[in-house]
Amino acid sequence: MKFKAALLHVIVIVSTVLGGLGSARAESLQIVGFGDSLMAGYQLPQNESYTAQLEAALKAKGIDVMITNAGVSGDTTSAGLARLDWSIPDGTKGVILELGANDALRGISPDQTEKNLDAMLARLKERNIPVVLVGILAPPNLGKEYQDRFNSIYPRLSQKYGVPLYPFFLDGVVTQANLQLEDGMHPNAKGVAVMVERSLPTIESFIKSLPAHR
């Protein structure tokens, strides 16, 4: 992650929070996509990020929703936990929580990753903000033991907090070079479109379950 890119994402998030939710779009269902570069849309125009493409897909289905992009490239679960409260403003009706990829890339202990995600879910539960949890799979080069410990985090937390789970954010993209940027790690705009298409049923079901939507 480059510093300038991260700073830009932080500025965008702060501007959104300071601006509040009392705009002309206040009647829209306010959702926050909270995550790392995969959520932020690393090296992509803002309108091609996951949150932007997902919002467009949901609106095409007649769901009036506004999805704020609170993704910061390079964030670990520790960094996400540190900024959780100010990144998710009061009035948020639901959160798409996606973090952990950078933990795995850095070989951070799965126990620490789980502790951080657990704390985030607990805080959001205290604030009565529903969550859909988005999972990440550890890369195979870290070994089977690490993979097994890391990959079990998301199903376990989903069950503990009773939140819906989309098991793997990069499903359909991770092995497809034509859907990735040159770094071989991040999706391009077409890759994001695949991510939206595959996750849409889970996200749509989550949004329709929200009290504010009914």
Automatic annotation (TrEMBL):
Organism, scientific name: Rhizobium lemnae
Gene3D superfamilies tied to this protein: SGNH hydrolase
High-level lineage: Bacteria, Pseudomonadati, Pseudomonadota, Alphaproteobacteria, Hyphomicrobiales
Domain (SGNH hydrolase-type esterase): residue spans on this chain: 34-193
PANTHER family reported for this sequence: THIOESTERASE 1/PROTEASE 1/LYSOPHOSPHOLIPASE L1 (PTHR30383), THIOESTERASE 1_PROTEASE 1_LYSOPHOSPHOLIPASE L1 (PTHR30383:SF24)
Protein name, per record: Arylesterase
InterPro entries per UniProt: Ester_Hydrolysis_Enzymes, SGNH_hydro, SGNH_hydro_sf
